[in-house]
Please model this.
Amino acid sequence: MLRDPSLGGDFDGRYLFSYFCAGASSIDSGRIYTAALDAPAATARDEGLVAKIAGAATGFGLGSFGLDGCGHPYAMNVTAGGLWRIEGDTPGACGEFIAPQTTLGPEAPSGVVKSSDAVFPYTSSVRGSTFSCTLDGAPTGCGALTARGAGGSASVSGLADGPHTFTVAATDEAGNAGPAAARTWTVDAAPPQTTITDGPPARTRLRTLTYTFSSNEAGSTFTCSLDHAPSTACSSPMTYSDVPDGTHTLLVTATDRGGAVDPTPAERIVVVDSAAPDTFVSSRPQARTNATRATVAFGATESGSTTCSVDGARPAPCSTPVTVGRLRPGRHTFSVFATDLAGNVDESPASVEWTVEPLALPALRVRARADGRAVLALGPLAQDALGTAVLHRGARRLSAIRGFRAAAGRPPTVELRLTRLARRMVARHRRLVVRVTITFDVGASLTKTLVVLAPRARRDSAPT
Model:
């Protein structure tokens, strides 16, 4: 038995002792105990140490149980810590003992975790130790201790996202403070946000689709799913080849380093359309017409834009219907081709051809009536037509403009109301040389010189 002189006093204090069972093995043989004789009831306390025992062949000894050069008790080759643990196989110089060593258990968090709570089991190499703990540099509780002060378990909760550090250090009964065991980890409880940063347009004629994407948290990993297929690991940029025509949906999901998964994956919908549209003409002018104005209506099998060309001119954007005016007599061509929303172009434009024939001049007669009106008689027209007629002399109008409708093959009659000036001129001169202009809805117009006779002449005027 050895007394621990570091505790002071003459006889009171802590004593260190051990015993060996000669000739027979025992689980207590070689174990080291301490006893505080100044306690009301002195009892032995197992320090969890086992002294070095020579093999049975050489007998038992207490060579590993003594005092070092500074008077500190020691035990050699311990199996479960000690009051002081001497380095090496023999006691060395004063101060070679090792202060209590603290170890954190594997349950303590490390790296990036998504839980805002954490548990830190710890143990000391020296039983009877006391412990001090810190969280992010501030003191915190060390939790419940295990039996005989061999360790404990601390827990923290409600941690904010970000890096954190927990430390725990042991101090033995002699006041020797050991180094702190530390654990640094990062809490990342918030899920990441996934963003598709680039990709094909909403409608494309390409069958190879390339997407780029990112997360608001560095170090995230991604999974991709096209058209709701099982998700697979992917990285940006991601390319899909030979995508068939139709509507396709890409879902990209980020998972951060703590294992948190984006609950709202990024989505991009695209329509692949590699087929060109078909352009058609729904309304066109007659193959042969007197009209100097023509209207063409057209359409396409897909939405998009159309481009038109008249008589081989440079194509220009257009929309249906298109009306072309001031057409000269002769052959004319109208072409239109469609481009769909994906950019596919109809390589075979829809075209129509027609011929504008000169309008034959119909026979004209005009006579004045006593009621101040002039009656204009036209010869039969080759086609149905709407028109207007007016009498004038130079820039001066001598009648109101009057519209009329003419049926093919039937000569129309148009009543023109003479102006006051025209009536006076007819009354004074008994005749009036005028110009008559007839404008047809087909875009053609005729102008002819006629003689208007007074009513009493009772005969039609004759063209000059």
Observations:
- The chain has five domains: 2-98, 102-187, 194-269, 279-356, 364-457.
- The mean pLDDT is 80.
